[in-house]
Amino acid sequence: MSGTRKVLVAEDSSVIQNLTKKILQFQNYQITAVKNGKQVIDKIEKEEFDVILMDINMPIMDGMECARKIRAMDNAQKSQTPIIAITGNAQNYSMDDFKEAGINEYLPKPLNFDNLVEMVKKYA
C-alpha cells in the first residue's frame, strides 16, 4: 500500500461511526467522519478520498441523493470515488437502485466488520 488510504465515513449513528473509525484506523486507514450527505459533498469538494462509506438513511441529504451528486461532479477523479453504501434498509432498495445512484457495493447493518475491512481493501 503506497501511502495512507483515506476513507470518508458518512454515518449519522455515532456508535457505528466510532466503531467503523476504530476498526479502519487499526487497518492503517486515515478516517474522516461526517453525519450527513451535505457534509460529504462539502468534504469531497475540499479533499480527495480513496473510498466513501455512506449510510443511506441520513438527515439533510440521504446517501442515494449524495451518491448521485458525487457522480455528477465536474472533477472526474472525485466523481469516480468508490462508494460503499451502509444500510439497515437494504430490502427497500435493489442492487439496481444502488447502481443507478452510482453506488459500487453495499453492506447491510448490523455491520460485519470483517466484510467491511475486505470491501474497503477491495476499493482503496
UniProtKB/TrEMBL annotation:
PROSITE patterns: RESPONSE_REGULATORY. InterPro entries: CheY-like_superfamily, Sig_transdc_resp-reg_receiver. Keywords: Phosphoprotein, Two-component regulatory system. Residues 6-124 form the Response regulatory domain. The modification 4-aspartylphosphate is found at D55. Gene3D superfamilies: 3.40.50.2300. SUPFAM superfamilies: CheY-like (SSF52172). This is Response regulator.
